[in-house]
C-alpha cells in the first residue's frame, strides 16, 4: 500500500499548474502571480513629506527656534514651483513632494505662524532627511516587487496597486466540485429515517475548500445509483477538481471507482497506508488537455477531512501555481501520552496552541473516524507513527487544518 | 495621548456585538454562533459498522477461522430486520446499523464466501465492539456541539450539518465600506501625474478585510472636496464599519474629522501613541440604534495596515460576536538587533517563522511607514518599545497580519 509521501508525490506528478489568466486585482487575494511583478516607478516617486509642516533647509535650523519666510504652500497632489533659498521655507502637506532646496520637514505642531513668517521650535536641530522619505527609498524602478508562486497578501495587493498592476497575471481561483454519495445520506435540512444520517461531508468539504482559497461548487447528494452518479460525475468534471465522498471502500455497493472509469477518469491510486482515510481514491480526467483531478474520499467525516488535508490541499497548491509543494512543517510537543495500536500512521486530531517554548499539541477526546464532534474541538492533527506509544512531552509532526486558528 | 491598550478598550466599549440572524450553513464559515448548538441526535444514531464486512457475535469467533451462516445483507441506508443468533452473521456495509445480537464487524477482506456460508479468518479473535462505533460514542443528544462566540471551522460546519442546523443562528458577515481620500491619489489603473501616487490603501484594506472574514464594500476615491467627501461618508454609514484612509493628520486640507462631525459621527478619540499610525481617528455613528464604527486611518500605507491590525480587527471581532477580545498573543525571538529611537511603541514589520524553539521574528528591510515594499516581505509585526534597543535573541510580542501565512 502507498505511503502518504508516495501518494502525495503521485498526485503532484499527475497535476500541472493551471494556466495564467488576467484577474482584477480586487479578486486576487491568496492567488499566485505567474510571473514576478517589478516596480514600475520609484517608490516614493519623489522625495516625499511624511508629515504636515514646513519644508526647510536643515542648515538654516542649527539653533532653534528659528524664524523663516514662507514662500509657497503645497498641498498633497500639487507640485512645488519655487526653490527654497536661505531663510526661506515652504508649507507642505503629508504626501507632497519636497521643494528643491529643502532637505527636511518640521511638523506643523512645532510652528507658530504670523503672516508670511513662521517660527519653528523643534526640540533639536533637524537632521537632513528628517520627516522626508527619499525618492526610491522603498523600491527602485525595475526591482522585484512580488515573487511568482506565492499567495498574494493584503500588503502585496496594496503594493501591486501602487505600481499599477490591475489586472494581474495569476492562476485563477480553483473551482472544486463537491459530491456526497450513498443511499444512507440525507441533506442537513432533512430528518434522517432509520439507518440514515445527515450529510456532514458536503458542507465540511465546501467550507474547507473556501478556507483553503478555492471556490466550492456543491453538487449535492447522490444515492447508490449508477446512472445518477454518472450524471453528477460528468457535471463535476467541468471543474478543476472533483471531490466525492463515500463509496470508495470494498463494499458491493461502492460504485464510485467503476463509474469514474466509465467517465474516462484514469485511476492513479486507490488506498493509502494512513489512518483515518485508507480507502482514498485518486485519478485524473484528461479533458481536451485540461485535466481535472478527481478524489474519492472515504465516507466517515474525519477520514474525509484527513484526506482533504493530506492530499487535496497539496493538489490545490500545485494547481494554483504555488512554488512550495507543501505547507511549512510544524513540530509540536504532546501534552499527554498517545498510543497508536494499529500499524498505519495515525493523523490524530489535536488542539495546537503556541507557547513560549513552541507549539503544544493537546490530544482532544476523540472516538475515531466517525467522531466529528471530537475533531471539531481540534484545530489540526499530530502524526503518531504506527505501533507506537508516545509519552507526554515528546515531539511530533503537526499539521494545522484549513480554516482553523 | 492614548496608549494602544486604552484605544482598544475605548473601541470595544463603544461597540456592541451586531444582532443575530439566521444564515445558510453553507455561508457560515468563520462566523460565530450567537447561542451554543446542542446535539439533536446521538452520534452515531445507532451502533454503526465502520467497515464493509460481516456483523458477528464475537463469542462465535474465539478460534478463527470460523464458518458462519449469512442470514441477511444490509447495505448502508437500510435497516437490519433479523437478530443474529449463534453461528449466524449478517453482511453489512460501512455506515450501516449493526443488527441485534451482533457486537463486532469482521472486514470483508478477511472473508471467503460460499453461497449462504462465509468463512472468516481474522488474525486474532475480534474484541466486542471491533469495527463498530457505539451509538452516542461521539456525542449524546443534548450535549454542547459548538460554543457560541467562536468562529465556525470546516469541522464545526460539518458537525452542525450532521445535527440538522441549517440555517444557523449567527452574527451575519460584517459589511465594511472602504474609502480612500486625498487629491494626490489616483486609482491603480491610472498613471499618476506630477506629485500624485496611486491608491494602495483601498485595495490593501479591502483585501485585509476579506482575509479577516468581512465583506469589503469599496467606495473608491474622493479628493479633498467637502461635498464629495460628505456624500461618500453618508454612503459608507450604511455599512457596519466605515474605513477612511488619509485626511486625518493636522494639515489644513484634512477635511475628514470635520465632515464626519457634520455627518453625525461622534468622535471617540483622535491620535494614539503608536508608530506607525499616530493620527488614527475613531468614532461611532448611531443610526437608529444601529451603530456604525468609523475609522480614519492614516494615508501612509503601512500606517493604514498597522491601524487596521491593531484597532480595526478587534472592532471586527467584537461586532462579529467573538467571545475573545483579541487574537492570541504571540511571542517571538528576534533574529537581529532592532532599535527604536523614537519614544512611541513601534510595531515593526517582521517575518515570523515557526522553529522547533518557538517563533522567530526576522526584521525585514524597511524604510518606514511609506514603505509597502518592505511590509509586503513581512507577515506580521513585532512590538519594539519606545526608546529601546533590543539585541538579537531577545523576546518580543508579535502579531501575525490577516491573510499572511
From TrEMBL, chains A, B:
The keyword Metal-binding applies. Residues 177-318 form the MoaB/Mog domain. The gene is moeA_2. It comes from the Bacteria. Pathway: Cofactor biosynthesis; molybdopterin biosynthesis. It holds the Pfam family MoeA_N. GO terms for molecular function: metal ion binding; molybdopterin molybdotransferase activity. GO terms for cellular component: cytosol. This is Molybdopterin molybdenumtransferase.
Amino acid at each position: 500500500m502507498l505511503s502518504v509521501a508516495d501518494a502525495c508525490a503521485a498526485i503532484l506528478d499527475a497535476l500541472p499548474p493551471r494556466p495564467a489568466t488576467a484577474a482584477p486585482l480586487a479578486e486576487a487575494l491568496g492567488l499566485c502571480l505567474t510571473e514576478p511583478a517589478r516596480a514600475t516607478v520609484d517608490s516614493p516617486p519623489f522625495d516625499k513629506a511624511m508629515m504636515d509642516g514646513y519644508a526647510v533647509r536643515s542648515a538654516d535650523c542649527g539653533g532653534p527656534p528659528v524664524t523663516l519666510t514662507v514662500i509657497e504652500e503645497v498641498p498633497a497632489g500639487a507640485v512645488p514651483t519655487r526653490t527654497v533659498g536661505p531663510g526661506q521655507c515652504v508649507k507642505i502637506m503629508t504626501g507632497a513632494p519636497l521643494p528643491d532646496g529643502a532637505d527636511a520637514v518640521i511638523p506643523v505642531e512645532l510652528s507658530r505662524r504670523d503672516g508670511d513668517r513662521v517660527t519653528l521650535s523643534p526640540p533639536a536641530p533637524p537632521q537632513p532627511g528628517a520627516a522626508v522619505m527619499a525618492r526610491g527609498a522603498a523600491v527602485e524602478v525595475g526591482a522585484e516587487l512580488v515573487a511568482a508562486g506565492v499567495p498574494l497578501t493584503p500588503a502585496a495587493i496594496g503594493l501591486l496597486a501602487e505600481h499599477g498592476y490591475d489586472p494581474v497575471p495569476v492562476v485563477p481561483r480553483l473551482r472544486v466540485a463537491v459530491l456526497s454519495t450513498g443511499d444512507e445520506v440525507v441533506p442537513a435540512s432533512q430528518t434522517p429515517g432509520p439507518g440514515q444520517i445527515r450529510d456532514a461531508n458536503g458542507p465540511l468539504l465546501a467550507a474547507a475548500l473556501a478556507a483553503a482559497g478555492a471556490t466550492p461548487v456543491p453538487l449535492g447528494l447522490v444515492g447508490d445509483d449508477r446512472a445518477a452518479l454518472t450524471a453528477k460525475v460528468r457535471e463535476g468534471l467541468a471543474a478543476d477538481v472533483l471531490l466525492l465522498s463515500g463509496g470508495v471502500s470494498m463494499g458491493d455497493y461502492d460504485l464510485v471507482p467503476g463509474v469514474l472509469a466509465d467517465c474516462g477518469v484514469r485511476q492513479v491510486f486507490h488506498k493509502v497506508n494512513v489512518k483515518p482515510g485508507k480507502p482514498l481514491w485518486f485519478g485524473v480526467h484528461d479533458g481536451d488537455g485540461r485535466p481535472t483531478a478527481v478524489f474519492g474520499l472515504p465516507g466517515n467525516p474525519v477520514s474525509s477531512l484527513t484526506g482533504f488535508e493530506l492530499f487535496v490541499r497539496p493538489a490545490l497548491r500545485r494547481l494554483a501555481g504555488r512554488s512550495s509543494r507543501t505547507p511549512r512543517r510544524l513540530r509540536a510537543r504532546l501534552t499527554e501520552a498517545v498510543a497508536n495500536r494499529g500499524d498505519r500512521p495515525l493523523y490524530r486530531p489535536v488542539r495546537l496552541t503556541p507557547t513560549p517554548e513552541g507549539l503544544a499539541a493537546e490530544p482532544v477526546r476523540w472516538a475515531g473516524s466517525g467522531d466529528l464532534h471530537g475533531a471539531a474541538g481540534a484545530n489540526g492533527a499530530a502524526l503518531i507513527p504506527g505501533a507506537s506509544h508516545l509519552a507526554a512531552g515528546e515531539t511530533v509532526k503537526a499539521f494545522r487544518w484549513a480554516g482553523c486558528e
